[in-house]
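pinging the channel bc i need a second pair of eyes. not urgent but kinda urgent?? the chain im working w is below, pasted from the shared doc
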Amino acid sequence: MIDYEPLDHARLNPNDTPPLNCVAQSAEKQLKFFSLSLLSMQHNYQFNIPFRIYLSATIVLLSFSSCNKKDFDIKNLNGNEIEVIGHGGMGIKGLTPINSLKSFEKAIDSGADGVELDIQITKDNVFVVFHNEKLQDGSNKEGRIFEKNWSEINDAKFSSATIPQHQILSLDELLKCLDYNSDLILILDIKTYKSTLSEAKIEEYSNALIAIIKKQGIENQVLLEFNDLEFARSVQLKNSNLKIFAYNVFEYAFEKASEYGFYGITLSMDNVTAAEILKAHDNDLRVALFGANSKSKNRAAIEMNPDYIQTDELKHLDRMLN
């Protein structure tokens, strides 16, 4: 029987006790303290800690050392709550393509408050869930969606070298297949890559968009992002209950959203300041940020006090806020 000697606690500085608040100390310092503690235990008790146990314990510690909601003083127009939105589902770092059904399903299962969907419109007014302007940049088809009828591309699949191909769906198909409840926020990023839209085409698109929102019964949970603000204005005039966001640089988005009475503005977190977001809030405009593609950017985005964060690190952001 091995006679263990007790650990000499005097060797450990009480000031090095790992804090729970990430604002006070970094996870790096907590990990350093933990590692030194284990090494001290090995030295005092004369036994070896298996590497797998050391690694497992380290991972557990790190999971508790990240920031959480109480570490941020959140102030916004959303009841001082920031909604966690999965960018295209699980984001660009996910194992499944953004805008695929599987990516949205994983985001919902991971606890997202909402998901952002990139929407384009075919020549015959079908809304397609796909991000890039050119189909060949991410699918097995070629050309631009606005140049195609839906029948020409309804068998398109996302391209990937590492995973099975996933079907590119229309918005109607996706919402029928996706299992979600009425609390899920659906942010539709309406992409119009066509340089200019005629009044007639804006009218067609607006009617088609309002019709599918009504058909799917999502009016109360959908947020609409537009880079074409004439298109946005047309939709607003047809249904003033829809929550519309102007998607542009801050100055222009703020000006037009204020002029038209939009619900909010969508901005790249790299091109806006916390002071500008506060200005938007002071003028009753909600703010959605995108570009949170790392854990450090998640934290930086929270500190800017937006109402919505579209993230590519969904699980990390959800752990911090929920």
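so Residues 1-31 have pLDDT under 50 and may be disordered. and The longest strand covers residues 114-121. — does that match what u expected or am i reading it wrong
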